[in-house]
Amino acid sequence: MFRRVKNKFLRIALIIIYFFILFTCAVQINFLGLFGASPTKKEILLPSLNVSSELYTADSVLIGRYYKQDRDPVPFDSISPNIINALIATEDVRFYKHNGVDVIGLFAGVLSTVGGSDRGASTITQQLAKNLYRTRYKDSQGLLGKIPGVGIIVTKYKEWMTAFKLENKYSKQEIITMYLNTVSFSNNAYGIKSASVRYFDKLPSEISVNEAAVLIGMLKGTTLYNPIRNPKNALSRRNVVLGQMQKEGYLKPEEVKTLSQDSLGLNLNNQEVRNSNDSYLRTAVEKWLEKWAEENEVDIYTSGLKIYTTIDSRMQKIAEDAVALKMKELQRRLDNVWSGQEPWRDKEGNVIPNFLEDQARKLPAYAYLKEKYNDEAKVFEELNRKKEMEVFTWDGMEKVEYSSMDSLKHYISMLNTGMMSMNPYSGEIKVWVGGINHDYYKFDHVNQAKRQPGSTFKPFAYVTALEAGKTPCDKYSDKPVKIEFVNNKGEHEIWEPKNADWNFSYSELSLRHALARSLNSVTAQITEEVGWDNVVKMAHTCGIDSKLESVPSVGLGSNEVSVFEMVRAYSTFMNAGKKTEPILVKRIEDKDGKVLAEFKSEQKQVISPENAWLMGYMLRGTIEESGGTSQALWEWDLFDNENEIGGKTGTSSDYVDGWYMGVTKDLVTGVWVGCDEQSIHFKSSATGEGSKTALPIFAVYMEELYKRPELGVTTGKFPEPTVEIKKTYNCPGPRVRSTRDTPDSGAVEGETEVPALTLPEILQEIQGEEEGQE
């Protein structure tokens, strides 16, 4: 074909052009897999970026991000001209004069490199092609890429072709914007906005000349010129960028002279950057979205979503402050209880031998040292070596001379908590406090931790009785109970429950009064009558998912459940018998603001509206009835405007777990307090029962909420019943005077019965008294 061309030079030129076209086509179609994949037309039109998703509260406060690369794209007009000028002067001075590949700049770059200049040969468009389409990664390499020298030539050529395509599709402004939104600035900051916030706590539009020079200077080597890790190198590189800006006419010599005297000016105090990837709420939302993300084939880490939770940031802050205030006091109390003693004890109160050493053996540090020394004695010698460190305390981070074993003892002896607050009608979760500090305790105590709820589980026995036809005024005797049964192993057992103080009054009490005083004796009788299998079934019906062992003691909270489950189940009482599925996310938008999904609670009628209303009335009895276990709430300013509150305290065996479940007309709130290690706990009801640990957190939280009516939580009476209440319920119990505090479910020693009082009279008499019984 080429022999017909007589002119030798023309023939050679045509052959070169022919093979150039053939080579280009072969590269483009990845002939025989030799060259690796090139971006398609669709990928050029719609380049995909790994954009971080943002997490917001219901009131639009940014509380975190999900990302594989912390990227938050911004438009061109949100980027300071200082950044644009620094980039062009340093990376591509002929940016506005070429079409993606700068042939003149290529030769000039080679010559300048020989002459010692820092200017590179690649254009900004070529670098964008490399960033967008990962041209230098293995998945973009073909068989020829395995040949040294050949692979880089093929890759470079593909980048040139891609750069031409980008230039034909996008304007110069669009290209430089895409570049700045894709490039890495180290420290997991991808894109100019993430970098500006991370290093200077500023938006890109606010970046100064010197700050722009620091950021653009990093592009030559994000590790070598990292201003955090290598500040001297970063300072030197910044001044080189300033020199380039002067050379290209963006700065005057006197400006460079002044600017080069300044420090780096870093500001690394941005709270959102430090904490956005480290919170109980962020982790909980991620888990909550797992099913939705899978069904919709969405990766929340790369899709640039805006995720709006149901959490109210102001209520969350009030809850966190309440937790911090009361947990500080509780920790001091626990420390005083065990002052000078080892707190880890078995059921008989004896110190557990080798407890701390056994805990240390679970640590990654132990495994590392064991592999290093292969000698446990040497391992513990290292773990007991003291050094300066910081530890978390309720008075702030404290510098101490601790060994690793000292640190382990410190953290394992700290009380933790879980708290959740929810609107029982909409299912929207308003508060989620997963623990005391996510940096040191990753385990979420709202939905991951399961603990014995103690007497907070009793309402499920009582609602089972109501559903079976009982009324709040039915009478039961506070007397010893003996229940014979066959356990799940087929063995014959006898269960004789005691009240918490081991006393029985032998008085007749209504169901409401018995629940108010949390009597084990009456709960056991009810459970036997309705059947413990039915109590288990009722708990599951109301919202408990955990496996429950069907035993006579089930109504006393012998199984383990989560705060999340308890709040969901108690909400059934407040929402007219409808089980309300909690929701943590309200809506999800894409990066352009288009709503992708909205979430509403699933609700199902599971108990009668009449019995649900009666359960709310009975829960109020713990405050309104004589000897009620929630009467410690009178110590707080909670009862203006005829406000009604219901609730239930709970304490597990040996005061390991303290609970409070509180219900108001607007919210259902659950609080748990205890140590993660269950062998560490309080010694007595005076220090460790739920009314002394969890209830005060609820009380402080509600007291502060009532001061902020604009948040939608106000004082007032419970909702009126939605159906006619046919059962007898208004039967106030007798006045019972106590000579001392009694624990949860405890009968009162030295009680005297007096004629029944009307409800208003009881409220007047008990208001302000400090019975605080549980």
TrEMBL record:
<dbReference type="InterPro" id="IPR001460">
    <property type="entry name" value="PCN-bd_Tpept"/>
</dbReference>
<feature type="region of interest" description="Disordered">
    <location>
        <begin position="729"/>
        <end position="774"/>
    </location>
</feature>
<comment type="similarity">
    <text>In the C-terminal section; belongs to the transpeptidase family.</text>
</comment>
<dbReference type="Pfam" id="PF00912">
    <property type="entry name" value="Transgly"/>
</dbReference>
<feature type="domain" description="Glycosyl transferase family 51">
    <location>
        <begin position="63"/>
        <end position="246"/>
    </location>
</feature>
<keyword id="KW-0378">Hydrolase</keyword>
<keyword id="KW-0645">Protease</keyword>
<protein>
    <submittedName>
        <fullName>Penicillin-binding protein</fullName>
    </submittedName>
</protein>
<feature type="transmembrane region" description="Helical">
    <location>
        <begin position="12"/>
        <end position="35"/>
    </location>
</feature>
<keyword id="KW-0812">Transmembrane</keyword>
<keyword id="KW-1133">Transmembrane helix</keyword>
<keyword id="KW-0808">Transferase</keyword>
<dbReference type="InterPro" id="IPR050396">
    <property type="entry name" value="Glycosyltr_51/Transpeptidase"/>
</dbReference>
<keyword id="KW-0472">Membrane</keyword>
<comment type="similarity">
    <text>In the N-terminal section; belongs to the glycosyltransferase 51 family.</text>
</comment>
<dbReference type="InterPro" id="IPR012338">
    <property type="entry name" value="Beta-lactam/transpept-like"/>
</dbReference>
<dbReference type="InterPro" id="IPR023346">
    <property type="entry name" value="Lysozyme-like_dom_sf"/>
</dbReference>
<keyword id="KW-0133">Cell shape</keyword>
<keyword id="KW-0573">Peptidoglycan synthesis</keyword>
<keyword id="KW-0511">Multifunctional enzyme</keyword>
<dbReference type="InterPro" id="IPR036950">
    <property type="entry name" value="PBP_transglycosylase"/>
</dbReference>
<dbReference type="InterPro" id="IPR001264">
    <property type="entry name" value="Glyco_trans_51"/>
</dbReference>
<keyword id="KW-0328">Glycosyltransferase</keyword>
<keyword id="KW-1003">Cell membrane</keyword>
<feature type="domain" description="Penicillin-binding protein transpeptidase">
    <location>
        <begin position="421"/>
        <end position="664"/>
    </location>
</feature>
<keyword id="KW-0121">Carboxypeptidase</keyword>
<comment type="pathway">
    <text>Cell wall biogenesis; peptidoglycan biosynthesis.</text>
</comment>
<dbReference type="Pfam" id="PF00905">
    <property type="entry name" value="Transpeptidase"/>
</dbReference>
<keyword id="KW-0961">Cell wall biogenesis/degradation</keyword>
